[in-house]
Amino acid sequence: MTKVRKELIKELEMYRAYNEQEEADRQVILDSLLSEELIFERAESTKHITVSAWVVNPEKTKALMAYHNIYDSWAWLGGHADGDENLLRVALKEVSEESGLKRTHPVSESIFSLEVLTVDGHIKKGSYISSHLHLNITYLIEADEQEELSTKEDENSAVDWFTLDEAVEASSEIWFRENIYRKLNEKLRELK
């Protein structure tokens, strides 16, 4: 087991769950990190580690969302670890790739939120991907809302800033809207 994985396990063991969902999902993620050697790879086809970023402006009044083509919805930014166990680095890379932002930084290097997410089967790059779980680690990332945005055409068709409440309402995915994005905003408001 690598040093980075050991540090992630330790952080998850000490992580203070915000609610019942986070506590249940924390245990699933921990169990998987301890038992699944390839959990950071997509080769683990039934479940694997992913990373998301709740990107906010410095005032923490707006969130950045991308219109994801697969989900046909406005959503947070993020992606697969693809073997990289440094999840904060993955989060920052995904934000840059999906939004064009170059000047981002973590509000904290600590995990902001945890989620086990179901992913329905879908077509990606011409191939069928079976339904599976994303064991998701979320980081709070800050960016300048005046910086120019761009899309990643193979993943999203728009990127834009929304007020915190508008970001929740922009999503057409009810479960995300009610259980993830609202939670992220509640946690964010507690930081202020």
UniProtKB/TrEMBL annotation:
Gene3D superfamilies, per the entry: Nucleoside Triphosphate Pyrophosphohydrolase (3.90.79.10)
Keywords associated with the record: Hydrolase
Coiled coil: none
CDD domains linked: NUDIX_Hydrolase
Boundaries of every Nudix hydrolase domain copy: 46-187
A single GO molecular function term of this UniProt record: hydrolase activity
Domain of life from the UniProt record: Bacteria
Family: Belongs to the Nudix hydrolase family.
Full protein name: NUDIX hydrolase
Organism: Vagococcus hydrophili
Taxonomic lineage from the root: Bacteria, Bacillati, Bacillota, Bacilli, Lactobacillales
